Amino acid sequence: MKVYTMKGYVPLFVVLFVAVLLSEVSSLMFHLQPTAQKCLREEIHKDVLVSGDYEITEVPGQTVDLAVVDSKGGFLWKKEHAEKGRFTFTTDEYEVYEICFTSKVPHGQRGFPQEVYLSTKHGVEAKSYEGLDEAAKLKPLEVELKRLEDLSEAIVKDFGFMRQREEEMRDTNESTNSRVLYFSIFSMLCLLGLATWQVLYLRQFFKSKKLIE
């Protein structure tokens, strides 16, 4: 099986190898201190499906609120008294998103740290293929081929995005180099002009003092 692109084709083993390198699945565990807030920040592309599974250890009387917010403070997903479950959202634009856990302890009660388990997936990894075989009447092998097709398209998009970022960085470097060159030339001209003015001024000063002819 080969995955075709605009400039040719890529062998399947290359796609799978790159898929492992570009795997967008992350899991972590941390301790949330009482009456504290902990936010996990991540930069995500536009129109990317994101899903997350979370589980928070229970402490009598304590609650944890979970919210997913963008850089403008808008809520993409929110749940109070979160304990265990899953959240999903699709990014509207390319920016930084935050997953925030907020611990709440009743007044007068002693708080205890809580363990938070979080696993997030992006893109194809977050897409669910369960029930696709029944809905589209596809065989298990066809469902797997569909998943590989979506994965290859995601990889091609990632390559295109990286190429675009590389072009933007190259243009920025070239623009910066040009500005530095022009600034250096301007500085040299200013120094030459200042040196010339100093020589002429000193010559005129010494002539006025009749130190030179």
Automatic annotation (TrEMBL):
The record's keywords, sorted A to Z, are: Developmental protein, Membrane, Signal, Transmembrane, Transmembrane helix
Pfam families (UniProt xref): EMP24_GP25L (PF01105)
**Subcellular location, in the record's words?**
Membrane
Report the principal subcellular site.
membrane
Superkingdom classification of source:
Eukaryota
Question: What sections of the protein cross the membrane?
Answer: 180-202
Q: Enumerate the InterPro entries for this protein.
A: Emp24-like (IPR015720), GOLD_dom (IPR009038)
Supply the PROSITE patterns for this chain.
GOLD
Q: Which parts of the sequence belong to the GOLD domain?
A: 37-147
Membrane association type: Single-pass type I membrane protein
Protein family (similarity comment): Belongs to the EMP24/GP25L family.
Q: What is this protein identified as?
A: GOLD domain-containing protein
